């Protein structure tokens, strides 16, 4: 029998939200009802309880992997409409090259031209093999890609619905909260600055050890290289509530400097970046890597983190890591 989803015109209680997402993920509702529910939530604005319960429901249904101590994740929630290059994917490689294990959780594009999976695949990473070897590459290389399609069977029906909707929904928000490696340290970019405190509340409800929720003030789902970024710190790590590229000793670049394209375009840009090419993409990656290294406890501040990130790129460590990962 098909279950009825609640009317999301008003905020849902914890119990109602938990049941709604259980019904949705277990395919007890029609696809049309799911689309209407997601759009209504997005239009009204999701609450921290709804985000936390959606993530909790997805966590209960995922296929987990074991991660080494200190592993982190770096990702954006997507849906910012900026169609940028894959900053968090590049950041993951540089962070791992700095010695911090990264369990990168990601997917194909839902509302952009090239998601992390699309670009990594264009670089030569086999998604099926990367999924099967995730624990091994994380243990031996310090990085893995946890393709959402391999670890979230409950999302099989939801993914095409998201594509049809073509705009951000609560699934953009909950995805980073359901990492199959169960990391407790995360740098998460969110496209809506006004949502950063609310999103941090959801993270806290889910037991995060340390996290930075960041939002570029122009609506970018990462630390902006173009201007100020709002930061909400959780747990054992902290950054100022408002940061800018200068805090890491970096210049500003307009957002158009990191405008991306299709997977092949983004893959070539990432290759050039790892080869030492200067410019807005490099500086955006250095800035976000710096924050990730502060989060991981291996950099004292953003300037120190950016310096360490630059060394990992210029010494070829991040480029070599990518090559070893592809060949693994």
UniProtKB/TrEMBL annotation:
UniProt xrefs under InterPro entries: Anthranilate_Pribosyl_Tfrase, Glycosyl_Trfase_fam3, Glycosyl_Trfase_fam3_N_dom, Glycosyl_Trfase_fam3_N_dom_sf, Nuc_phospho_transferase
Residues that hold anthranilate 1 according to the record: 76, 107
Enzyme Commission designation: 2.4.2.18
Amino acids binding anthranilate 2: 162
Single GO molecular function: anthranilate phosphoribosyltransferase activity
Cofactor: Mg(2+)
Cofactor binding description: Binds 2 magnesium ions per monomer.
Annotated positions binding Mg(2+) 1: 88, 222
Glycosyl transferase family domain ranges (all copies): 71-318
Binding site for Mg(2+) 2: 221-222
Keyword Ligase part of the UniProt annotation: no
Record-annotated membrane-spanning stretches: none
Keywords: Amino-acid biosynthesis, Aromatic amino acid biosynthesis, Glycosyltransferase, Magnesium, Metal-binding, Transferase, Tryptophan biosynthesis
Function field: Catalyzes the transfer of the phosphoribosyl group of 5-phosphorylribose-1-pyrophosphate (PRPP) to anthranilate to yield N-(5'-phosphoribosyl)-anthranilate (PRA).
Assembly and interaction partners: Homodimer.
Protein name as it appears in the record: Anthranilate phosphoribosyltransferase
Source species of the chain: Sphingomonas corticis
The gene coding this protein: trpD
């Amino acid at each position: 029998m098909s279950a009825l989803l609640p009317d999301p015109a008003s905020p849902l209680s914890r119990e109602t939200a938990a049941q709604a997402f259980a019904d949705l993920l277990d395919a007890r509702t029609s696809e049309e009802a799911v689309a209407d529910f997601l759009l209504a939530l997005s239009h009204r604005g999701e609450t921290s309880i709804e985000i936390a319960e959606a993530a909790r429901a997805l966590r209960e249904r995922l296929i987990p992997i074991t991660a080494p101590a200190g592993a982190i994740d770096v990702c954006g929630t997507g849906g910012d409409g900026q169609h940028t290059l894959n900053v968090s994917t590049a950041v993951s490689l540089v962070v791992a090259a700095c010695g911090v294990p990264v369990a990168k959780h990601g997917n194909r594009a839902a509302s952009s031209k090239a998601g992390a999976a699309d670009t990594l695949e264009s670089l030569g990473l086999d998604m099926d093999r990367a999924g099967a070897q995730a624990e091994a590459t994380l243990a031996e290389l310090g990085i893995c890609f946890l393709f959402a399609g391999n670890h979230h069977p409950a999302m099989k029906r939801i993914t095409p619905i998201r594509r049809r909707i073509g705009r951000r929904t609560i699934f953009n928000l909950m995805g980073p909260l359901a990492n199959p490696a169960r990391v407790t340290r995360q740098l998460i970019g969110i496209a809506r600055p006004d949502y950063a405190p609310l999103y941090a509340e959801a993270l806290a409800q889910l037991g995060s050890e340390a996290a930075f929720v960041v939002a570029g003030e122009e609506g970018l789902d990462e630390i902006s290289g173009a201007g100020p970024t709002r930061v909400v710190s959780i747990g054992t790590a902290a950054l100022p509530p408002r940061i800018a590229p200068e805090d890491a000793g970096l210049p500003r670049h307009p957002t158009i400097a990191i405008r991306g394209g299709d997977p092949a375009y983004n893959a070539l840009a990432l290759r050039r970046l790892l080869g030492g090419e200067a410019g807005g993409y490099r500086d955006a990656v250095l800035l976000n890597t710096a924050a990730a290294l502060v989060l991981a406890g291996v950099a004292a501040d953003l300037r120190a983190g950016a310096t360490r990130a630059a060394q990992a790129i210029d010494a070829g460590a991040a480029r070599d890591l990518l090559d070893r990962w592809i060949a693994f």
